[in-house]
Amino acid sequence: MVALFSTGMAKVPDARASTRNSDALPPPDPDTLTLNRCTFGVSNELIGEMQRRGRENWLERQMDWESIDDRETNDFLHRQTPTVFMSAKELAALPNRGQAANELKQATVYRAMYSNRQLYEVMVEFWSNHFSIYHRDGPVTLLKTLDDRNVIRPHALGSFRDLLHASSKSPAMLVYLDNHTNVAGTPNENYARELMELHTLGVDGGYTETDVQEVARCFTGWAVGRRGSGNMGNFQFYPRLHDQGEKTVLGTAIPANGGIRDGEQVIDMLAGHPSTARFISTKLARHFVADEPPQALVDRLARIFLDTDGDIRSLLREIFLSDEFLRSADQKLKRPMEYIISALRSTRASPGPQAYRGVRQYLFALGQIPFDWVPPDGYPDVAGYWTSTNGLLNRWNFASALAGSRLPGIRLDYLALIGRNWRPGALVDHLAARLLHRPLLDDDRRSFIGYLASDKSATKRLPVEIVEERVPGLIGLMLSSDYFQYR
Amino acid sequence: MKLSRRNFLKITGLGSASALAPRLLLAADASDSADDIIISVFLRGAADGLNIIPPHGDGDYYRLRPGLAIAPPGNEQGALDLDGFFGFHPGMAALLPLYQSGELAVIHACGSPSPSHSHFEAQDLMERGLTTNNSSFSGWLGRYLDYRMDDSFGVFHALGMGNAAPRTLAHDASTITMNRIEDFSLLVPEAQKAETEALLQALYAGDSPLENGARDTLTAVDTLAAADPAQYPPQNGATYPDTGFGAQLQAVGQLIRADVGVRAAALSLGGWDTHQGESATLDNLLPELAQSLAAFHTDMGTAMDRITLVTHTEFGRRAYENGSAGTDHGHASFVLTLGGNVNGGRVYHDWPGLRDQDLYGKGDLEVTMDYRNVLGELISKRTPGMPMELLFPDFDQLQFAGIYT
């Protein structure tokens, strides 16, 4: 565990105090660990599928995302969130701009919940967060729909170089980081700085303040087609607003009169830079392995990044097949989106058409609505940020509301979930296997059984009124426990 | 050995789930309610000191910002004069009476000597009170809390408003974070509440950060329920602006009034990254900031004698404007500080000037006052005896300007 915000106060000997550490939770097996990290929530069906195919074959199939049939999810989205399929022109004609933003958030949640392309959706979330764009910034409300469809999704499991080129010409990104107002003579440095600091080299990646200014000059005239231009809402280069002078970026001369090539050349330099290789490798390893990723793994990834020209699948393969990955159980705390979606998936809750309302309420309370992070660095990917009192309390409140079917539009069939296991011991074991996918410590197993049967008799069949009164609470407690907080 | 509240309760045989615990906490906290409270307000995104506290007496200001400068006092939408040289942006009007009555001081050309122009690196360094990265995880205000920590400290000693615990407060114990007081309760069916709490205590009995945080969360929920802060609405006619930040500062005031033992609080107000369309952004944000601080001052009344509020921002903005009616990342900015112990009614400064040869780096206002001089003076005046090298481990040039009594 990373102790960024560690809370260890001075210790006083206390005979009753347990010394249990979360590191000591019985670890999940490798299949479950892999599913925890590569999906938005484990289910028994997925565990069965992985056992059938084998872990490596399952991963290869998930990386070959286009070969996985996802028509059902897509059909659902066409009905539920039609604006995510609209063109720039259709979006601009919407009477209510908020509809596009709201439906994109909904589609993001539904895809995480239902898509068969789970690893793909995990990577879409990763890159959306890496190239983070705040949704409520003027025209971005509409343009982020295009960024999601044309920038992030085509390249999420492709090549980093292609992804970076696409992002640099994304109208949503250009507007969000003010590059649409970056013009010759009086440049605006916002995009140039964040491109190097956050998208590629990293803050210690070796660029100077002069590089920031020179890169800003390279991107002058990179903007978005204006209303009535015939290219509204799409990328547009304005040659007359571009600084045609000579520039020097990271020690490389960029000759005069390069036009749009200036910016494209900068993207190419950055995409293949060793600092970018290290920065992206660190972020991927942080996401999939540990908050403080093992240096040896990062070093291997950085080499692969340079050897494969940023091939994202090659990087993921190295991560998932590494010893570091298999040894990293409980090193990653679920962030709110992962926590909420995994709870819905594990409990097989049946969300109705209004389900997003209930999910949104808790994503908001926990602070992770999709595309709602204001600054350009994206939601933090470390436990220290998310283990606040506010965070824990709202996780518990969500779990209790979900288990008690008190979330608008979401019903949980707890009787189906427990099946015929109405004896306390068997019921707890069955639910732990279904929801937590890992063994319980004896103390905790006894606590759960005690919650069901106050006389501690674990083998007597429970009467129906106790099942009705206690099982939703038990489910809520299991989802509230530390067993369910890691992915 | 210093004892934490939690361990203190364990020794006296009271688990925090006990119904007695909250009342005990309150009784203990009430006895030292005269203690100091420090409130940090972080203006995230690099707030523009040159347009918020415009140097209307410096002609170069108008040369560098022909389209953006705040007009001299007396003009329409002109600066509100402070001392003949500096003024307030008109959006700061709500704070002018506090400046004039001597309870608000301004420190200008102030900031971190770190050359970083990265929001994220500079915020992180400033919250930790450092100029160079090191492995220390604690915040400057957190180290202050660690130094003061004793038996009288309850679970609410560190209060962060928002979703996550602010780095500024990171210390050896938990920070209580919340968005709204009224949402800070365990929402389980009433009949099962006690049992649920007890089971959560058992499940989170270990010593990992997650488990410690979980138990402190349960204690805080109990403490808050017993204190019932809803019975402490704003006093003295204070009206907070109806905004997220206004509501958060109002909640801090409510919790101070409810006497739950707040010793330090941290809040943030974002949106200051004015690369483009700066005038509209400041016209919008400054009244929210100024009216919130003024309302808090009114609300707290005489309690301001033991409360000090201080603002920060990671750096300032480029002295000259860009082509987007905005400003890019710069260096020095400003600090506001408010409280009964402030020698206010002054703009503290060693003005570096805005001639081309005076500017830092690519054209920034130079830092002539390290922000840690302000914080260091505050702590050493209010908590004599705290070693400054503990507060600011990589800064040994502390100089006090007489900002605090």
From TrEMBL, chain B:
Signal peptide as annotated in the record: 1-27
Membrane-spanning segments: none
InterPro entries: DUF1501, TAT_signal
Pfam families linked: DUF1501
Alphabetical UniProt keywords: Signal
Protein name: DUF1501 domain-containing protein
